[in-house]
Structure formats: C-alpha cells, structure tokens
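cron nightly-structures :: item 1 of 1
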Amino acid sequence: MLVGKTRFQAYPLVLSVLVAIMLSGYPLGSLEKPLRSMHIVYANSKIGGMVADSGTVLTTTDGGITWKRQQSEVSDDIFRVTFVTSKTGWAVGDNGTILTTTDGGTTWHKQQSGVSARFYSAIFLTSQIGWAVGDNEIIVATTDGGRTWNKQNRGSVFPPILYSICFVNANNGWTTGDSGTILATTDGGMIWNRQKSGVSNMLFSVSFVNSKIGWTVGNDGIILTTNDGGKTWHRQKSGFSGYLLSVTFINSKTGWAVGTDGTILATTNGGRNWNRQKSGFSGYLLSVTFVTSKTGWAVGDNGTILTTTDGGTTWHKQQSGVSIELYSVTFINSKTGWAAGGDVDIR
C-alpha cells in the first residue's frame, strides 16, 4: 500500500489507462493496480523472474516453486527485468532507474541513464546491446552493457508513454504506446519511424518472431499483426472486448495473449483464430511467456502465478506466497530466474 501519495500521483501510466477505461465504459474494478506493469518473459521452463514495487527483485532456482529476495539497493519501482545469461541482467523502472547485475542478482548496481523519466520496458540482445523505453518520449540505447546510455532519434512527435519494446536483431526493432503508436527502426534505433497502425488504441505489448512477422495487443481486445515488418498492420479477431496486456509468440504460428478477467487467448495458426483457454482465474493477468509450445507462465494480481505444460490446455496455480499483483518476469533456463511484486515482498 502506498503511503503519502496516491496511486494516481505515483503512476501516470495508470491514470492514462483509467481515463481510457472510463471513456470506453469498461468497469474499473481494481484494474488500476495491476496496470502499473505488463510484461513477462521466460527463456525456458525453469529459470525466470518477476519485477515490481519498491526496488524489489526476487529470484528462483526451481522454476518458480520458491522465490527468494535479492537486494536491489533502490527504492524506485521496477517495471521490467531482462537477462541474457544466468548471470547478466538488467532491471528498469521509476526515475530513470536502470540496474544491472553480473552475478545473477546477488548484487545489483545502478547505471546512469541520464534521464529522470520512468522506464516501462527494456530489452537486451547481448551483454552489450540493449534499449529501454518509457515516459516523456524516451528511448535510450547502449552498446557497452549500460556503462553509457544515449537517447535515440525518435523521428516524430511521440505520445507521452511508450509501453513495450522488441528487437529481433541488432537492427530491427519496434516499440508501441499510446494512441495506436507503433514505431520501428531498421538501423538499431539511430532513426525511429512511425508506422500506420490504423487504430487509436493503447498498445501495451509487442512481439516479433523475425524481422517481418509480429503482433501487438491493447485495449478493446485489439490484436494487430504484420507480415511485412510493420509496413502494413491488420486487425485480427480476438473475440474479447477487455484489455489485452501482454502477448508472446514462440514462432510464426503459436502464441498467447493475456489480460483482464483472467483472459488467456491462444493461437496455433498465426492469429487467424484465437481461442480462449481456461485460466481458472477471474482477475487481471499482466504478463505471459512461453519457452516451448507446451511450457509457459502467466502472472497477475493477487499474487497469481499460473503455469502450463500442455500449451495452455490446462493451467495450474503456483504458490507465490503473496496476495499482491505480480508484474514482469524473466527466465533464462529451466531452473533460475528473477521476479518481483507490488507492495509486499514475495517470500
């Protein structure tokens, strides 16, 4: 629970989302809480993690059966964690915070981002090359593991918030945000150009499997796809009218999207058909990741962690030990990962 400031003061992202929800007529409920962060990534079936409030970083060495707290040495909220090996990773969050570790999170060190904006998402391709995006039209990049971070040429007037970023190689990347914004680069971010999404929705998450084929999701159950790197985007039928907050694909055919009302959607034909899976959960799922076509996880509010080993035909709840919302998570292999949650530590 926040003391001394409201959640609206602490999280402008939430405010913009809630305004849109109210205008759309979607019931607010407790949606404001989990929308503070919306990402989850796994590299395989065991190694992973999640991030969240008050600089909390957690780690697991058994695929998420148990979690232990790591010391991040900051009090800023963390919205995204990403690892490239079992030792080397980064976490980003409030007030321009970028943290890095080279020992699997036993120790975290703050890097100088050069900005005070809130970072919502980050991605690293190697131990040297990475990007982060967030408030105030910010895109920053590094080619030396974060020892130096530089602002990139955005090429157009951006909306206030960029929610998600995805790169498939050192040149080709995309970031999504408010007002149907999709920005793309083919030169590692030296120049970012706006693509025509054809919508005005908030686009919370983006996933590409190669330089041509990708998807993005957002409010009103919107799912957009491209097969030409984003030169053209086409809407797919989700059969859902709520908020889709995270999307992941493991190849050009197989993917999942999660959101409000415990929604998990899956496709095995590139999104021509999306089918709802039974999550057994009615709250908000904020992030989803798969390491194979069978093995994956989804996390959300009330400390919810769901896992599947059959592609989502059945989902089972794991014990997080908390009742708060869970945000971003990353796994590197079948055992080791990192995580965090809002307001209360995972034990």
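cron nightly-structures :: done
The radius of gyration is 18 Å.
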